[in-house]
Amino acid sequence: MAEPLKSMYNESFLNGLADKLGRAYPSFNRKEFVAAAMREPWEALELKERMRRITLTLGDFLPPRYEDALAVLFAIDEECRGFPYLIFPDFVEVFGQADEHFELSVAALERFTPKSSAEFAVRPFLLREPERMMVQMLAWAGHEDEHVRRLASEGCRPRLPWGQALPMFKRDPRPLLPVLERLKADPSLYVRKSVANNLNDIAKDNPQVVLELARRWKGQNPLTDWIVRHGCRTLIRKAEPEVLALFGYAQEAEETPLVVHAEITASPQALCIGDSGELSYRLRVREGEAVRVRIEYGIYFVKSGGKTSRKLFLLSDKTVPGGTALSGTRTHRWADLTTRRHYPGSHRIALLVNGREVAEAALELAPQAD
User: Fold this and answer.
1) Distances (CA, A) of 255 to 243, 251, 252, 258, 260
2) Residues 6+ apart with CB under 8 A from 20
């Protein structure tokens, strides 16, 4: 079994960090720093808790003036690259939010982000001074370094995973749009992915904003088209009619349904939590012109209280000639995940084409076998 990510913060890492700090700041007490960082209950701390413990301990052992402490980190940051060194921007987040430190802290986040990432550390600054920080984000969007340009988009995502939510941008995402406009044809895929993810975040609270932007951007540039498509993925999964039409998915018509035959089967029809089973589907689309179809299966998972909640899984997304017969088989694992627990009961399984359920099956899930 792979070690948990939090294990990267261990005694060896802390000793290495202490050695670097000691060379830049001779008064740094290496042994006591490591002992203080790893004091109980170190083993029980999760990833972000360990990160913050190290940050706070740095605050105790580096020079007391914020400017002097940052100077020590600046002296060693070129040899401190990679995910573990998120502690450097975290130090700025914890100790650098005073008004008199604003310019220095912004410069530090810009400096640290190419070496790890400041996407989490920048968010408290946005929460406190959104207008001032969005001016800075717009400036970063024109930076020569792709990591800084990505920070301009990633840092202001309304729903950044692992990061603090930005409720003001959930309510009104318009302040974000100038940044996304500047980055909409960025040459870096790293940046374009962030722009698409920002749009996808916005779409969860303000779908019309994203739909209007998608209509305006689509067809301007192949790089932008990729962003538009990826940024609208949640709206496509929700089968919003306007979005499906925008991307050319075939529409239903009363006189000529899109799917003329469909079925889905589960084999076996009864299994235990932890098992795997096969789902097989067959369908035929209407005769006539070629159609674009998005084929998914949805499982109505039983929740702890007995209610159900549907989760969609993509099977195929392509354009096919009219009258085409499509079929396939997918293995589905019913093992518990960190993001989903399974509960015994009857699970309905639906086959969907362009967001509409066209066939269904049932599967009985039993408790995990001993």
Assistant:
1) 23, 12, 9, 10, 11
2) 76, 79, 80
pLDDT in tens, the chain (370 residues): 568 999 999 999 999 999 999 999 999 999 999 999 999 999 999 999 999 999 999 999 999 999 999 999 999 999 999 999 999 999 999 999 999 999 999 999 999 999 999 999 999 999 999 999 999 999 999 999 999 999 999 999 999 999 999 999 999 999 999 999 999 999 999 999 999 999 999 999 999 999 999 999 999 999 999 999 999 999 999 998 899 999 999 988 777 899 999 999 999 999 999 999 999 999 999 999 999 999 999 999 999 999 999 999 999 999 999 999 999 999 999 999 988 999 999 999 999 999 999 999 999 999 998 7
Decide: 192 and 186 in contact? Cβ < 8 Å: yes
Do 334 and 363 meet the contact criterion of CB atoms below 8 Å apart?
no
* DSSP annotation string for 89-156: HHHHHHH--SGGGHHHHHHHHHHHTTTS--TTTTHHHHHH-HHHHHHHHHHHTT-SSHHHHHHHHHTT
Nearest residue to 322 (alpha-carbon basis) of 363, 271, 275, 288? 288
Biggest CA–CA distance in the chain, Å, is 82
Nearest to 168 by CA among 210, 196, 128, 118: 128
Q: How far apart are CA 101 and CA 321, in angstroms?
A: 62
* Of the candidates 118, 133, 42, the residue with the CA atom closest to the CA atom of residue 83: 118
Dihedral of CA atoms 5, 8, 10, 12 in degrees, nearest 10, equals: 160
Q: Token pair for residue 322?
A: 């009219």
DSSP state of 257: -
Length of the chain measured in residues: 370
AA identity, residue 156? C
Q: For residue 329, what are its two tokens?
A: 């088989």
Q: What are phi and psi of 291, to 5 degrees?
A: -135, 145
DSSP track, 8-51 = GSSHHHHHHHHHHHHHH-TT--HHHHHHHHT-SSGGG--HHHHH
